[in-house]
Design a protein that fits this description.
Elements lengths: L2 E4 L19 E6 L5 E6 L16
Parallel strand pairs: 1-3
Antiparallel strand pairs: 2-3
The chain binds zinc ion.
């Protein structure tokens, strides 16, 4: 299993390429060309740039 980490550039905090990063990255399965599933780990910028809704607060 492989995972590709998408980390915000120049964020206020330092992200680590682990699924237990403090930003609680979202794991999204993506199908590779060979039919296998790769995991896209989408990290969240903690300054709220990406937040357009209010589904997660606190
Ligand atoms: Zn992170």
């Amino acid at each position: 299993m492989s995972a590709l980490h998408v980390v915000p550039i120049g964020d206020l905090v330092e992200h680590v390429s682990e699924d237990d990063c403090l930003c609680e990255p979202t794991a999204k399965p993506v199908k590779a060309d060979d039919g296998s599933i790769d995991w896209l780990m989408i990290h969240h910028s903690l300054d709220g740039r990406e937040l357009t809704g209010n589904d997660h607060s606190g």
